[in-house]
Structures are given as C-alpha cells and as structure tokens.
C-alpha cells in the first residue's frame, strides 16, 4: 500500500475531474477530465499514482459489491466488474468509500436510482485505464512500473440470480430494483 498522501493525491485529481465537467454523473467525461489532469503532471508522479489506482481497485474487489454490480447491470463479467468499479471511482471519494464499506448504500445514489429499471449500465472502462492512458500520453508507452500487492481473495460467491439471497444481502438495493 502507498502512503495515504498518494491516495489523497489521486482522489484530488478525480475531484478536479468531477469539478471540470458540466455533469459530474457523466462518468466518461469525469474520466476524460481526470486523465487530462493527470497529463499535466510529471510522468514519474503519474507512475506513482498507478499504485494508488491499483490499491483502490483492490479495496473494492469484494464479492458483495460484485453481486450489486451484477444486479444493477443485468449481469457482470470479470471485465464488467472492473468497469463498474471504474464508474464507482468517478463518483468521488466519499461515495466510493461509503459503497465499498456497504454496497447496499448504492441504493442511495441518484445515478443508481436513475439507472434502476433501465438498460443503462453503470460502467466506465476509461476510468479503469485513466492512469495508463495519461502515462502513455506523456511517455509514448503503456509500460508503467509494476504495481505491488494482489487483489484479495473474494471468498465464497453466492448465486447472484437468487432473488431471496439478493434481498437478504442487499435489501435496500433489491427494493430499488423491484420497483
């Protein structure tokens, strides 16, 4: 894990990206603005921020969050879960930390409420690669220094299609999706 300061710096750049768009719920626009903010930094700092992004993605690598993404997006592959967590990053630090601690808190988010019952997927592939894209723009290569630390073990999966299990594990989100 990186010093908290590096993670704080990453979140400051995400907030800068959110502040720089007309609609902060537009995940792709937030990712683009965050990438632009990253390209204003020295390449060495961008490389350090890759570890911060990795650590945040590892923090959010949780089976209960995957179940929530599965239900919200009408299915969720490995890549889809990465992109869902990319979307979650674009929502800002407070939302990210709250949802990682309690995936059922997704039910409180306006973007989730708006997406419920639609075919809109809550994903942002661009945010997942924002550091690599900025590094490439600065150096001409995607060869970032290797990140340290593995994703944690997910533990035991539950049947994401089991409505009773979904209601038991994520009650507020299940009520939102039933409406």
Describe the structure.
The chain is mostly helical. The protein has one domain (4-178). It contains eleven helices and no strands. The radius of gyration is 16 Å and the shape is globular. The model has no long low-confidence stretch (mean pLDDT 92).
What labels would you give this structure?
single chain; 179 residues
Write the layout of secondary structure elements.
Blueprint: H1 4-19, H2 27-39, H3 43-59, H4 63-73, H5 78-90, H6 93-101, H7 110-115, H8 125-128, H9 130-139, H10 163-169, H11 171-178
Helix pairs in contact: 1-2, 1-3, 2-9, 3-9, 10-11
Major sheet description = none
Number of domains: 1
The fraction of residues in strands falls at under 5%
Q: Averaged pLDDT, please? A: 92
Distance between the termini: 41 Å
The helix content is 55-70%
Summarize this, please?
The chain contains eleven helices and no strands.
């Amino acid at each position: 894990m990186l010093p908290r300061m590096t993670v704080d710096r990453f979140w400051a750049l995400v907030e800068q990206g959110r502040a720089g768009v007309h609609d902060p719920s537009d995940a792709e626009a937030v990712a683009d603005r965050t990438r632009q903010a990253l390209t204003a930094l020295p390449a060495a700092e961008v490389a350090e921020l890759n570890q911060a992004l990795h650590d945040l993605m590892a923090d959010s690598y949780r089976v209960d969050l995957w179940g929530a993404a599965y239900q919200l997006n009408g299915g969720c592959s490995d890549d889809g879960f990465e992109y869902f967590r990319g979307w979650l990053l674009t929502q800002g630090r407070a939302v990210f930390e709250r949802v990682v601690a309690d995936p059922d808190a997704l039910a409180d988010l306006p973007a989730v409420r708006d997406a419920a019952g639609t075919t809109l997927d809550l994903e942002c592939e661009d945010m997942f690669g924002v550091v690599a894209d900025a590094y490439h723009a600065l150096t001409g290569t995607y060869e970032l220094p290797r990140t340290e630390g593995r994703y944690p073990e997910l533990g035991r999966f539950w049947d994401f299609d089991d409505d009773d299990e979904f209601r038991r594990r994520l009650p507020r989100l299940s009520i939102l999706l039933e409406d």
